[in-house]
Amino acid sequence: MKNHVVMIINAVILIALGLYGYLGAPAEGRSMTALIAPIIGIILIAISFPVSKQNKTATHIAVVLTLIAVIMFFVVGFMRSNTLVIIMAIVSLIALVMYIMDFMRRKREREAAAKQNL
Questions:
Q1: Is the separation of the CB atoms in 100 and 79 below 8 Å?
Q2: Gap between the Cα atoms of 58 and 64, Å rounded
Q3: Domain map of the chain by residue range?
Q4: Using CA atoms, how far apart are residues 8 and 23, in angstroms rounded to an integer?
Q5: Percentage of the chain surpassing pLDDT 70?
Q6: What is the tens place of the pLDDT at every residue in 60-91?
Q7: Global confidence as pTM
Q8: Contact between 70 and 92 (Cβ < 8 Å)
Q9: Helix axes 83-117, 56-80, angle to 10 degrees
């Protein structure tokens, strides 16, 4: 699966779960920090367009943002015993692994092409 598709799927899940967590809480108990995941999702959707055009800088920014999100979601999820946040962390971790696998595949392809050109 292409990186920008994985990015959009991850972003939609972050937006949906983040909004569910925010809107599902009682009005007086809602925390603005619950909107961090949807904001990250919106940023990932915005970055997915340059990524779909093979923009390496945008791809690396998205990977770093996803890594930061994974760390943050795992720490907060386990500290608060929040299943919803842990699910977001797992989904983002899967996306991160898929990004890295795609980087490795592309590197192998480049090396094979360079070897054939010699």
A1: no
A2: 10
A3: 3-117
A4: 22
A5: 100
A6: 999 999 999 999 999 999 999 999 999 999 99
A7: 0.90
A8: yes
A9: 150
